[in-house]
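Q: I'm writing up a methods section and want to include an example of the input and output format. Could you take the sequence below and give the corresponding predicted structure tokens, formatted cleanly so I can copy it straight into the document?
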Amino acid sequence: MMKKNKVYCIIVTYNAMKWIERCLNTIQEDHVQLEIIVIDNNSTDETVAFIKKNFPSIQIFPQQENLGFSGANNLGYELAKKNNADFVYLLNQDTISYPNNIEKLIKIYDSYRSIGVVSPLHLNDDGNKLDKKFEEYITSGSCPHYISDISLGKTKEFYQIGFVNAAAWLIKVETIQSLGGLFSKAFYHYGEDSNFLSRLRFHKKICVIVPNVFIHHLREEREGKMSTAFENRKLSIKKVEIMTNPNISYKKAMSNTFRYAGQQLFRMNIKGACELFSYPLFHYHKINKFRASYKSGSIL
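A: Here is the clean output for your methods example:
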């Protein structure tokens, strides 16, 4: 009898009452040894109590502080590694799954040695079209042939893609180990998934999406203009993301950051432009420590 793959499904929660019941109820796997663990980032609502009462078989690890998406998933990964998991499945709290999603993703993962991350397609809340953000990831440049193949009705089993956010990532534990760890401490919330995929490319692995496997990513109600504070935070994350990309030289990364700064100047964001111009000049040693760690067996 073939051994079942041991998978740790890691769900990071923060004030998740709006979504968590549907999220947990829809994870159903018939042919996978599945362990669902929840890392709660110090929720202030009833998330922890609700899970303990209604899903007693699920392990929940309440934190005394918000570790961010990066830190909480890293904690989940360490638990998975300690318990000899074959795979981790990072799943957002605001998702709805379909039966045997993980099993289907594992079959794709095992079909091609270069695969490092495999993701389902992200649907919108109602499931009648692709999630808007997810749709933006799919271009002829970032995901070659997908649009043509879908249009002509000749889809392949999977498609390589430049980026897909970590709302539903399946990754082999040994792949994460070969990259020196899961998410870098350079990122708290946002940017960690892009950085991971940059490191994945450095180690000659690819990220793929699977056309016949789906989740719903329930974020349409949160659409709208982001606050100025959040937009500024995105800029701060982007500069770190660009400068710590191990696939390009420091000089090239600096050039890309300066180009981004020029765009901010054009938009009259003087403060943002100054932040971008100064970052690679005044944080050289810190940036290079992160860059060097991504090429080693233990990331910072």
